[in-house]
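User: two proteins, same treatment. go.

Assistant:
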Amino acid sequence: MSLRNSRRGQFFILDTLLALTIIFGGLLFILSSTAQTPLTSQAAYTAQDLLKQLSDTQINQSSNSIIVQARFNGTIAASDGYRSLLEEVVYLYSQGNLGTAQQIINSTAVSLIPQNYNARFVINQTQLFVKTVTTNTQAQAPFVLYDRRIIIGLTNTSQRFGPYIVEFSIWQ
């Protein structure tokens, strides 16, 4: 009788050890597989930063030589100084002055875009700026990052211009 009672205890101990091994193995597996957060690339920041800089910088605050020359020539009126660079580019676009708008975008964007990235600046599907480094088109690129804004502004005579869709895209 004493032999049966001692074996019963062995089976409970083996069951407990087996259950603890399975639980420990499961916890080890769950804790070792951590979810990795995706890294935000420099391109993501660049796409946002270019439009942010154009939106935040007023014409009066800019020391860009092209803007200074356009103000001297009268292409940009002195009363337009309250506008942001982005609003002024869209205003020039709405007035048909694409050359000056392209020059402002080129001079601003070139310094902000990393050398190994392609970029494109578009207003209402009219391309004002393109920088191509690689042979990848936007359709072939593994990722394309966009930043879009809708711009509505006022002229000097308080008439509205816009809405215009401004899009900046960057890819590698």
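Protein 2:
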Amino acid sequence: MAEVDNAQQARQLTTLAIRPQEDSQATVVGAWLASLEDQWLAEGTYSVLRLPGQAASRRRVEAALSMGENGKPDVVAFYGHGQDAALGRRPSLNADGSVVLQQLLIDVTNCHLLDGMAVYTVACRSLRVLGRSVASAPTSRTTVYFGYDRSLWLPRSPEGRELVRDAVNRGANILHHRSLVPLAQQRYRTARRAVAYALVEANRTLRRMGPPFMLDALFVEDWKNGFGAIYQ
């Protein structure tokens, strides 16, 4: 299997950014991804396909993942809610009070569409089953899945949330900027180590800030312990 992305150089490289933002928690982490999207679009180095809010539907996600070889994404970033075997939307309310039912956007029945992609998730628990399904599927191309194997709590303080945002966004940023680390598996190791190190430093920073931030420090420690990557 080729590690250098030579075959991708002849076409436009694309990052697919998915952020449902259907409730307060998903809105917080979705804003983290939105800040990266704005940065990436301003740079103009690679193409960015955005699926924010209601645009993040299963139909549109599958359509984006099923584009022809010259259009399908190389990197998929998902910031939102997860469960053991899926990424998706929780039940929510429209502005008129009507209920929007839960919708699984990516699960074990359609995860084959992620073949050959780098998948980066900021979501609970999906590394347990979905990540293993994605990374273990038969393929001739390198596939990687970044995620968490446990439920996550958002820090309560603005300082804690900023530290976690900056830590987790490092991984997505490294995957998006392919040319900085041309070898695929080296790029994945670099991203994993960068996020793990930044979460350790975030935990230390919060502990040094004293008792008001100790609960946030424990939350961040859980983020660090639950983070991982599975790749072929």
